[in-house]
UniProtKB/TrEMBL annotation:
Organism encoding this protein: Georgfuchsia toluolica
Alphabetized PANTHER family for the sequence: METALLOPROTEASE, MITOCHONDRIAL-PROCESSING PEPTIDASE SUBUNIT ALPHA
Protein name: Peptidase M16
Top-level taxonomy: Bacteria, Pseudomonadati, Pseudomonadota, Betaproteobacteria, Nitrosomonadales
The keyword Signal is assigned to this record: yes
Database matches in SUPFAM superfamilies: LuxS/MPP-like metallohydrolase (SSF63411)
Length: 458
């Protein structure tokens, strides 16, 4: 955090937010309908808007080999209409109500959202409940839409060397775990996918007892509970398939993969197997790993930017990433592009050198303080937006965690000590659990067609 006045302001804002939260102790409010549909409402009356997000606990983690990309393909097809709503009309109705809508698919879940003037919320709930129960996928809608998905794969992955490297990294780091498959799907699977596959996925996973509704904004929770019962309450639940754990066997040695693709600069990504957050109260290491990632790459003053990009000028860009809240397993990733005149091997050594310095020397009190202030500030900003609040609640609940733990998790990050950061740096960054993926840049064809923008759904 570059500006100390700003940091102080952020801390004061946080105290304000905490007192405000204490005053309306029960907010968010929640209920579960008899059909198993879980409803969470966060009242926020600062602006006359509302957000509805429906989360389905079905992502690429639930797919089988040969059907990769199915969760994401169905996300596209959810805009293809019901008995009441014609294909492509869903988004028009949202726009007519003065709102915007979209959807996203991840490894762990699929979610659909509308941001609207609060008065339009009942109509949005009616529309979303309608497609939970009554989706229709005519063949004439399926055929062009699967082509759109393939085109998205071409543009976002096959024409993007960095995406290709991450795809290769995951498929090398995970051999048994479903995270080895890309969310968008392998092209061959998309080519052989059919409408019956999509309908089967919908019938299997799109049930109220496998879904969650988060509504935030200028609403009364009683009114929302009433509307949820009215629109979603009559949808029949059904038994869900058993989900096997599919744990990754222990990695016993460094794995390397090289991707050759047309690109201007090389790129490298290093991924280590590390623990995820399982027990919010008892776990300590995931919080320490979170702080380690922030020490390396939280902002401009972080070590990778300061030492590798600006200091040694060995990297054009360098980053660190770690996500502790996932349904599956997780990786700690360091990545970057070497600067002109430097090699991937030099950058890989430099990235590992930054971990080694923390193993040997630890982190400073000043660094820790900065990260904790940053954590507080980013939390305040997230709470500033109704969408941010709904996302924060839903992302945790959709992977089987509890929204009540959000503040507790922030407190735990703030309680991390310098010793704990040094201990995880020493413990998890050896060769045996490391996978390295490197981009070997090939000449870019001079007459290559300019990239078209990615066309998103509906």
């Amino acid at each position: 955090m570059k500006n100390p006045r700003f940091a102080k302001m952020a801390a004061l804002m946080l105290l304000g937010a905490m007192f405000a939260a204490g005053a309306v102790h029960a907010n968010p409010f929640e209920t579960t309908l008899p059909n198993g549909f879980h409803v969470i409402v966060k009242e926020d009356h600062r602006a006359p808007t509302a957000v509805q997000i429906v989360w389905y606990r079905a992502g690429s983690i639930d797919e089988k080999d040969g059907s990769s990309g199915l969760a994401h393909a169905l996300e596209h097809l959810m805009f293809k209409g019901t008995k009441k709503v014609k294909p492509g009309e869903f988004s028009k109705l949202v726009a007519a109500a003065g709102g915007r809508d979209n959807a996203f698919t991840s490894r762990d879940y699929t979610a659909y959202f509308e941001q609207v003037p609060a008065r339009a919320l009942p109509e949005m709930m009616m529309l979303e409940a309608d497609r939970m129960a009554n989706l229709q996928i005519p063949q004439k809608e399926y055929d062009p839409e699967i082509k759109v998905v393939m085109e998205e794969r071409r543009l976002r992955t096959e024409d993007d060397p960095t995406s290709l490297v991450h795809e290769a990294l995951n498929s090398m780091a995970f051999q048994a775990h479903p995270y080895r498959r890309p969310v968008i799907g392998w092209m061959d699977d998309l080519e052989h996918m059919n409408r019956a596959d999509a309908e089967q996925w919908y019938k299997t996973w799109y049930a109220p007892n496998n879904a969650l509704l988060v509504i935030a904004g200028d609403v009364s929770h009683e009114a929302v509970f009433h509307l949820a019962a009215k629109y979603y309450g009559s949808i029949k639940p059904h038994a869900l398939p058993e989900r096997k754990p599919q744990n990754e066997p222990e990695q016993k040695g460094k794995r390397c993969v090289v991707v050759k693709a047309p690109a201007r600069l090389p790129y490298v990504a290093l991924a280590w197997k590390v623990p995820k957050l399982k027990d919010v109260d008892k776990d300590r290491e995931p919080y320490a790993l979170q702080v380690l990632a922030a020490v390396l790459d939280g902002n401009e003053a972080s070590r990778l930017a300061k030492n590798l990009v600006r200091g040694q000028k060995i990297a054009q860009s360098a980053g660190a990433g770690y996500d502790s809240t996932v349904r599956g397993e997780t990786l700690f990733v360091l990545d970057g592009q070497p600067a002109e005149g430097h090699t991937v091997a030099e950058l890989e050594a430099a990235l590992r050198g930054e971990i080694k310095r923390i193993q040997d020397e630890g982190v400073s009190a000043e660094e820790l303080a900065r990260i904790k202030t940053q954590t507080i500030a980013s939390q305040v900003f997230k709470r500033d937006s109704v969408m941010g609040q709904a996302m924060e609640i839903g992302m945790l609940e959709a992977i089987g965690m509890d929204w009540r733990d959000i503040d507790k998790m922030q407190d735990k990050v703030r309680s991390v000590t310098a010793d704990e950061v040094q201990v995880v740096a020493k413990k998890y960054f050896g060769d045996d659990t490391l996978t390295v993926a490197t981009l070997d840049p090939q000449p870019i064809a001079e007459n290559a067609a300019p990239k078209k923008p990615v066309i998103h759904h509906h």
